[in-house]
Amino acid sequence: MRWPRPNWRELRRHLDVRRRFRRLYGESPGQLLLLLASFALCGYAGIRLLAGDWPLILLWFVGAAVLHDLVLVPLYSLGDRAVRAALARRRRPVPRAGVNYVRVPAFLSLLLLLVYWPLVLRTPAPYEPDTRLDIDVFLGRWLLISAALFAVSAGRLLVRTWPDLWSRRPSAPWRRRRPGRSSGRLSDP
Fold first, then answer.
1. How far apart are CA 87 and CA 103, in angstroms?
2. What pLDDT sits at residue 109?
3. Is the pLDDT of residue 125 over 50?
4. What is the pTM of this model?
């Protein structure tokens, strides 16, 4: 039994259609399908959510957007600048990606605090019966989860920079100078 020979013209025509679609849309067809599916899921969830007490839900969404844009974004920016300033004081520079090892666990910890803040701050009124847990466990668990997130991030940073810690010669690509390129100073030849 012989395998059929591939039809190169058909394959080339298929690739040209995908290339034209990518040129027009900017991404692959799979990305478009995933985006449309996520819009459909969000629309379904929105219809189900707004079937209840929609004025309070709308007020909550607007309040959350205003709180995020006017309060949380400036706090994110200040925290990011503080981390960058602390890392810039070191003798050996940390790559820009090194800031993400603080950013990501801080974001996840604050997200958990935002979701569970009534329980973490011990306001048991409507929430304790739903959780079926003692209200005193949430603060400790949130602190343990936050500490674990930062510990895993620090361990990952240590593993990533381990070879650079012991070598005298800078081997990381962000530290190497490219031959034939000046640093941009006027005093460089």
1. 13
2. 92
3. yes
4. 0.51
Separation between Cα atoms, residue 79 and residue 125, nearest integer Å:
33
Q: DSSP letters of the chain? A: -PPPPP-HHHHHHHHHHHHHHHHHHSS-HHHHHHHHHHHHHHHHHHHHHHTS-HHHHHHHHHHHHHHIIIIIHHHHHHHHHHHHHHHHTSSSPPPGGGGHHHHHHHHHHHHHHHHHHHHHTT--TTTHHHHTS-TTHHHHHHHHHHHHHHHHHHHHHHHHHHHHHH-SS--STTTPPPTT---S-TT--
Between the alpha carbon of residue 23 and those of residues 16, 27, 28, the distances in Å are 10, 8, 9
Measure the CA–CA gap between 51 and 58, rounded to whole angstroms.
Answer: 12
Locate tokens 């050996």: which residue?
A: 92
Closest CA to 174 of 94, 118, 73, 87: 94
* pLDDT tens profile 63-108: 888 887 888 888 878 877 887 777 677 666 556 667 788 888 988 9
The span from the CA of 114 to the CA of 64, in Å, is: 11
